[in-house]
């Protein structure tokens, strides 16, 4: 394959994952209250780290690298927990990065025997966790559609109109296009919505003009990391759920590439994701996971050459040193961003539901596990002070909705599915 074709395919992979990559820092930075300079840095370092994480994973080494044409980006599973840690009065931004570094180290340590731990994360557990995360994120999307919490024009007609026009554009592109264009429907909606927002006077170009043409990244840009036990537990659970999701992507790619995977291959893949999280925490980025949209692109194009993904990773790293390009993403009007979030977070919820439906039809126990875990997880997110009276040692597991829901799902799965007799259910006739 010649260099031109390889580069063109690499750019296609970059565009397919770009919207997902930039949305994460935009959502998190906006929720924590970053200014335009901080937001520009956050987007730039995230783009660069997507490239580094991709290069670590596509590499096939002795200890790291799955060696498949896989592209990595920040996991949406981490968005809600990071926002919760960053906005918690007793925690803060340095706890975010401490927990990301610590969870990355833990993932690297357990990578070799995570295959044995996977039995504690069956679809009923991971589906419940993903559903909780998606539902917990919806208030962020809706507040942004209205203009952003605290905005002077919150819920104004112009904000709502711009948000829904953007959403309609995303839906129309998704409905009436196929292949690559459909894969970048969110990105097309963001661009179209921003152009419309500019005509409505809702776009401020000063962050682009103020940004440097080039910059050097620096470790601990937002301060030295601090290590909070609750935050570390939260991010470690997020990392484990992410590994379960990544395992599915690994096997999907191995099928496409006709390459059999063994436990050592999986361990190298898990270590790469853990290492990417450690480096991400040091440079104030995020945990990273495999992006399934790029798997679809690999299947659609039929090109399995890792050289293409190496070029994609290199391009992402190069973009990380160009603040003006990063600043371009920060001028997206908040209602436009909110519309894209609604679509993306809705997909997270449906992904969780897709995991749950088959297993809930298998047994009444699974339906009860999901019901209680999701209800508790979302309930704690909505009413965060409900378990404040509990001892501090227990509140580590109950103060965060995602941790509470995850631990509940794990314990109930052990109780109902791993201990004692199992009761099967016929979805048409009830328990048998």
Automatic annotation (TrEMBL):
TM region(s), chain numbering: 15-34, 41-60, 66-84, 96-114, 120-142, 154-174, 180-199, 220-244, 274-296, 308-332, 338-360, 367-387, 393-416
The entry's keywords: Cell membrane, Membrane, Transmembrane, Transmembrane helix, Transport
Lineage: superkingdom: Bacteria
Pfam families attached to this UniProt entry: Xan_ur_permease
Keyword Transport applies: yes
Main location: membrane
Membrane topology: Multi-pass membrane protein
Location in the cell: Cell membrane
Segments forming a coiled coil: none
Family in the record: Belongs to the nucleobase:cation symporter-2 (NCS2) (TC 2.A.40) family.
Full protein name: Nucleobase:cation symporter-2 family protein
Organism whose genome encodes this protein: Lysinibacillus xylanilyticus
């Amino acid at each position: 394959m010649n260099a031109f074709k390889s580069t063109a395919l690499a750019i296609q992979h970059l565009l397919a994952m770009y919207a997902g990559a930039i949305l994460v820092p935009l959502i998190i930075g906006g929720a924590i209250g970053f200014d335009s300079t901080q937001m520009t840095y956050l987007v730039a370092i995230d783009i660069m780290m997507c490239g580094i994480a991709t290069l670590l994973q596509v590499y096939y080494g002795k200890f790291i690298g799955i060696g498949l044409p896989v592209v990595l980006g920040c996991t949406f599973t981490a968005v809600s927990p990071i926002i919760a840690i960053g906005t918690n009065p007793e925690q803060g931004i340095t706890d975010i990065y401490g927990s990301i570094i610590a969870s990355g180290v833990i993932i690297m340590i357990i990578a070799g025997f995570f295959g044995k731990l996977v039995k504690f994360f069956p679809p009923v557990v991971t589906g419940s966790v993903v559903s909780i995360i998606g539902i917990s994120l919806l208030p962020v999307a809706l507040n942004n559609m209205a203009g952003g919490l605290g905005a002077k024009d919150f819920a104004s007609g112009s904000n709502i109109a711009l948000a829904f026009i953007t959403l309609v554009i995303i839906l129309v592109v998704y409905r009436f296009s196929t292949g690559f264009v459909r894969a970048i429907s969110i990105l097309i909606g963001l661009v179209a919505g921003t152009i419309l927002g500019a005509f409505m006077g809702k776009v401020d170009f000063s962050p682009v003009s103020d940004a440097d043409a080039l910059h050097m990244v620096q470790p601990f840009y937002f301060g030295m990391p601090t290590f909070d036990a609750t935050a570390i537990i939260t991010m470690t659970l997020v990392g484990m759920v992410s590994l379960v999701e990544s395992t599915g992507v690994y096997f999907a790619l191995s099928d496409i590439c006709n390459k059999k995977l063994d436990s050592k291959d999986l361990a190298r893949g898990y270590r790469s994701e853990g290492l990417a999280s450690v480096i991400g925490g040091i440079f104030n980025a995020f945990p990273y996971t495999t992006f399934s949209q790029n798997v679809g692109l690999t299947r659609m194009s039929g090109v399995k050459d890792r050289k293409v993904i190496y070029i994609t990773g290199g391009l992402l790293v190069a973009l990380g040193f160009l603040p003006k390009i990063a600043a371009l993403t920060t001028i997206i009007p908040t209602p436009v961003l909110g519309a894209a979030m609604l679509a993306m977070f809705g997909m997270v919820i449906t992904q969780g539901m897709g995991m749950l439906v088959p297993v809930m039809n298998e047994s009444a126990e699974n339906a009860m596990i999901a019901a209680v875990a999701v209800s508790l997880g979302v309930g704690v997110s909505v009413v965060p002070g409900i378990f404040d009276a509990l001892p501090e040692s227990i509140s580590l597991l109950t103060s965060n909705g995602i941790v509470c829901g995850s631990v509940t799902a794990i314990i109930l799965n052990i109780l109902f599915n791993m201990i004692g007799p199992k009761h099967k259910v016929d979805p048409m006739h009830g328990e048998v």
